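seq:
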Amino acid sequence: MKHIPILSNPYMMRLFRYLPPYKWLIIGAAVAMVVGGGASSLIALVLGKLTDMGFYDKDPSVIYWAPIALIGISILHGGSQYLSQFLLVRVSQSVLVQVRTLMFDRVLHWDNRLIQENKCARIQAKFINEASTALGGAASIMTTIIRDSLQIVCLVCVLIYHNWRLTLLTFVVAPLLAILLRWVNKRIKRLTTQTQNIFGQLIGTLQESYEGQRVVKIYDGYEYETKRFFKVNNTLKDLSLRTQRVKAAATPLTQLISMSAVSVVVVVALLQAQSGSLTMGEFTTFLSAMLLLMPPIRHLSTLNGSTAAMTAAAESIFQTIDAEPEKDPGTGELVNYRGAVRFENVSFTYPRQEKSAVENFTLDVKPGEMIAFVGSSGSGKSTLINMIPRFWAPTKGEIYFDGVPQSELTLASLRSQIALVSQEVIIFDDTIAGNIAYGCKDRVTREQIERAAEAAALTDWLATLPDGLDTQVGNAGNRLSGGQRQRISIARAFLKDSKILLLDEATSALDTESERHIQQALDSLLKGRTSFVVAHRLSTIRNADRIVVMQNGRIVEIGTHEQLMAKDGVYHNLYSLQFSSQNEG
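struct:
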């Protein structure tokens, strides 16, 4: 039993812990399977009895009883199969919903390290393919395992009852079958794990090509993408063929071993019949039971590959569920927060990196102050922005909010004081109003949403839409322009009305006209808030209270625009270079 993966694998046993709420459905299915298993043994017994009645007793009623008995047993057997399958499918689908919901909740609470290590396509494969593999076919597999095991037990009892000596001969093949099934299980499990990884790559390749179709077209990447997809697709095909080869080989080998035993038994039974120690009816019963044993044995042998796939998938989904969530050790709450932020000797190094992205960063920010971070790519600007809401926790040092250490605050309390407007605007497949009120629909009024939309300069555009705020934006906001998406993001920040505002390259991907409208909305949004800005266009941060110039994760200059220009240092060079490039353009 320990070699049967569905019974010995700890992850499959964890799946079974979801079953107690459905115990009555499972009991009903079990009763139906017991009836089905008993019905199969009845066939052998009835055939033997009818043989004696027809050939020895010459009973004429056997002509009528034979079809009635056989059809009745068939209806009983088929009905019990249908009922058990239906009940277990209902259970497995209910558990599938629970497991997927739990997986989704866990993934939402992952920290940045896990998100970076797991591609979106790999996670999609877990939800679509692996969860279905682990549970979608569980009903059929469990039905077959239990029902066919019961059939084998019942039929073996019939065999022992009628002729225990012949039955002992059949047990000679048991060790051979066990060795064969163990080999199949190991092979299938290894191939299934490889297939799951390649399936994730297939989804990733498809997603990248589909979402990057403009780049593919403009750079004539058709052949490259086709070859890339063909390579992954062909690897998936090879793995599928290898898996099917193992599964296909298991069935005829099982049949060959089983039929060899049947052949020996038939020869011995015929010798007993010739000596008069075995009647025709007993021989028919014994032979029928032996032949009826073949299908359940064959089913169980083929299921070994399926159960191996199930256990591999179960391991994968529970590894997702068990992955360490985002750390939230703090217990403090920000009460009456004014907006002060202080960085004290803050350093940060990304996982698997040796060089620090930010090193010994110290800055005291007053409530309502606007701080702009500038510098070349990789200087640490976005890392600092991401540490404020604790997307990344400082490797060293501490960030204080009104004097309270960030590490002592709950994430919910900290993030409730922060709004984010970034270059990569996230829009959900909902209405415009639903996107503006994301995360707080049940706590805001329609009037508040309208005021936020007005503050973000959305009113004129909304007036041109038949459904206004109730307009559906499509998947990821694909019906909107870049400027429209960005203004919805700004309206979302207006509605949250938080003390801290993070602007990460909020206008860098927009055209000049869109940027002008959005900059006006941003200027309104910045008033009265402590804001941290990373800007591509330096002209947009001239009014910042302080501009922090970063190089290699350190502050090299700090001051107002006028002060830094007068220094004729790094900022002056960056500004002059950008200004001259714009004039040349």
